[in-house]
Specification:
The chain is built from 10 helices and no strands. It is mainly α and 232 residues long. Helix 5 runs parallel beside helix 9. The longest helix is centred in the C-terminal third of the chain and has 38 residues. It is globular and about 55 Å long. The C terminus is likely disordered.
């Protein structure tokens, strides 16, 4: 644990602070412009992750710390890369799901058992919805709103990631079972949340618009600060 944390922090600070400092200097000298300033931030994240993994640290901690360090030493660069990195994240997410379907899900479609199916359904319903509904008691929102929030917690990238970590560490039948459960839970989530998102959101929106103006859901709240706003 110490190695994972220590090397992850070290790699993240070096890649984020060092890369941010270099990028800021070169950009100020007009030697790096346009898309290359944006691509540099992705390169720093990749360098932090790879460096930590080579040293025996945690790559995800390194990438996160690299972002914090980059923001401290090159805040002016953050304003120009936010939209680009978010678009890239959407692209990489789509590619990840494509690979997930082709490489992980495809070979395991025949491994479904009633126990796996039951857990997948419970994971998307009771396990997710009940804690959310309980946590929103006292919020003044409608019961349907609370269930809506609880239901739309898709199982996706995080489930795939943690399942892969467990699978790589275990290398036994338990790891195979964890991967089967994760694959089928994510598949259930893709179809269940994908098919219900638009119709339920539209239905709930219409009900809220036609309801009393003093409902908790209709109260104005301060706009949440965006990453770009926090950098200004």
């Amino acid at each position: 644990m110490a190695a994972q944390l220590g090397f992850g922090l070290t790699a993240g600070i070096i890649a984020g602070a060092g890369g941010g400092w270099l990028l800021h200097r070169r950009a100020s000298a007009h030697q790096v412009e346009g898309v290359y300033r944006q691509l540099a931030t992705i390169a720093m994240a990749a360098a932090a992750f790879a460096g930590a993994e080579v040293l025996g640290g945690n790559g995800f901690i390194a990438a996160f710390v690299a972002g914090l360090a980059f923001a401290r030493v090159a805040a002016n660069e953050c304003k120009d890369v936010q939209d680009f990195t978010e678009d890239e994240a959407e692209l990489l997410t789509a590619i990840t799901f494509l690979i997930f379907g082709a490489v992980l899900a495809g070979p395991r479609l025949g491994n479904l058992t009633w126990e796996i199916a039951l857990y997948g359904v419970l994971s998307l319903t009771l396990v997710r919805i009940v804690p959310v509904v309980i946590s929103m008691i006292g919020s003044g929102t409608r019961y349907e709103t609370r269930v809506f929030f609880g239901w739309f917690g898709p199982r996706g990238l995080a489930s795939i990631l943690f399942a892969l970590v467990a699978f790589e560490d275990l290398h036994n039948s338990t790891g195979e079972l964890i991967m089967d459960i994760a694959v089928w839970t994510v598949l259930f989530s893709i179809f269940a949340h994908g098919m219900t998102a638009s119709p339920w959101a539209g239905r709930l929106g219409r009900k809220l618009e036609s309801g009393p103006a003093d409902m908790a859901e209709m109260e104005e709240v301060p706009e949440l600060p965006t990453r770009r706003g926090m950098m200004q």
